[in-house]
Design goal:
45% of the residues are buried. A seven-stranded parallel sheet has the order 3-2-1-4-5-6-7, with helices on both faces. It has one domain (9-198, 226-254): Rossmann fold (3-Layer(aba) Sandwich). Helix content is 43%, strand content 14%. The protein is an alpha/beta fold. It contains eight helices and seven strands. The termini are far apart. The longest helix is centred in the middle third of the chain and has 29 residues, at 106-134. It binds beta-D-glucopyranose (BGC). Beta-D-glucopyranose is lined by residues 96, 151-153, 195-196, 201-202, 205.
Length: 266
C-alpha cells in the first residue's frame, strides 16, 4: 500500500507537540504540504517545520488559538493564501487540566471544553465550508477529509478528569453528527482515539516507574503507545484506501478499551 499525499494540503491543529507533531511530521514525510498550527510553542513549531523540510516536505507555521472563532477564520485564510485549497483537517489541539470533580473550578471546566471541543467545532465547520466551495478535485474520492483526535476517554469515564472526558465524549457526538450531515457531500470525517501514548501530556505518568507499572495493567498489549502508532493510522484514514470508513472512531490503545480490570473479575 503506497500512501502518498503529494499535492495535498493538510492542516494540523496543535502541531507543535505530542500527537499533533507526530502527525504533522508523518504527513510531511508522505509528501503533503503541512500547515503547522500552534498556540504558544513557537520554537517547537519551528522545529516541526525544520523536520518536515529536512524530509523533503514543505510547511507553513500559523499561530492561532483554535478555541477563538476569529483566529480559526484567519488561520484558514492564511493557509489557503499560502498553499491553496486545504484537503485534510486534523482536529488535534487538546489539553488536560486535571482536578477532582468537587475541586474543579469553572475555569478549568470551560477552558478544556473550549480548547478540546469548541475548537473542533470551529475548525470542522470552516473546513466543511471550504471543501464545499472548492468541490471535488479530479482523481479524488472525497472532497475533503476530517480526522478528529479524540481519546479512549470518549468511552472510558475518567474520575479526576471530568472536563477532559466530557470534551472527548462531546467530540464523538460532534464527529458522528457531522458525518450524518455531510456524508452526502462526500466530506469524510472520522475520529482516532489514542490510549496512553508517550507524549508531554502524560509525562508525569510514564516518567515515574511506579505509575508506569500501574498504567501497564490497563494495557493488555503490554506497552505504552508511541506517536507513530497514531500517526500511521491518521495517514491511512486520510487516504483513499479508507474511503468507505465514515463516521467512526478507531481506537489506538493496545486494548485499553477492553476494560482489562474485568479479566478474571466482575
Ligand atoms: C490522555 C492521557 C492518558 C490516556 C489514557 C489520553 O487521552 O491524554 O493522559 O494517559 O488518555 O488514560
Amino acid at each position: 500500500m503506497d500512501i502518498n499525499f503529494k499535492d495535498k494540503v493538510v492542516l494540523v491543529t496543535g502541531a507543535s507537540s505530542g500527537i499533533g507533531r507526530g502527525i504533522a511530521e508523518a504527513f510531511g514525510r508522505s509528501g503533503a504540504k503541512v500547515v503547522i498550527n500552534y498556540m504558544r510553542q513557537k520554537g517547537e513549531a519551528e522545529e516541526v517545520l525544520e523536520s518536515i523540510e529536512s524530509s523533503g516536505g514543505s510547511g507553513l507555521i500559523v499561530q492561532a488559538d483554535v478555541s477563538e472563532e476569529a483566529d480559526v477564520l484567519s488561520m484558514f485564510e492564511e493557509a489557503q493564501e499560502h498553499f491553496g485549497d486545504i484537503d485534510i483537517l486534523i482536529n488535534n489541539a487538546g489539553i488536560q487540566a486535571d482536578s477532582s470533580f468537587l475541586n474543579m473550578s469553572f475555569k478549568e471546566w470551560t477552558k478544556v471544553i473550549e480548547v478540546n471541543l469548541s475548537s473542533q467545532f470551529l475548525c470542522a465547520r470552516e473546513a466543511g465550508r471550504h471543501f464545499l466551495m472548492r468541490g471535488i478535485k479530479e482523481g479524488d474520492r472525497a472532497i475533503g477529509n476530517i480526522i478528529c483526535v479524540s481519546s479512549v476517554h470518549e468511552l472510558i469515564p475518567w474520575a479526576g478528569h471530568v472536563n477532559y472526558a466530557a470534551s472527548k465524549g462531546g467530540i464523538m457526538q460532534l464527529m458522528k453528527s457531522i458525518a450524518q450531515e455531510l456524508g452526502e457531500h462526500k466530506i469524510r470525517i472520522n475520529s482516532i482515539a489514542p490510549g496512553a501514548i508517550k507524549t508531554p501530556i502524560n509525562e508525569d505518568v510514564w516518567s515515574d516507574k511506579a505509575k508506569m507499572k500501574e498504567l501497564l495493567k490497563l494495557i493488555p498489549y503490554g506497552r505504552i503507545g508511541e506517536v507513530d502508532d497514531v500517526a500511521n493510522v491518521a495517514l491511512f484514514l486520510a487516504s483513499d484506501y479508507a474511503d468507505y470508513i465514515h463516521g467512526t472512531t478507531i481506537f489506538i490503545d493496545g486494548g485499553m478499551t477492553l476494560f482489562p480490570g474485568f479479566a478474571d473479575n466482575g
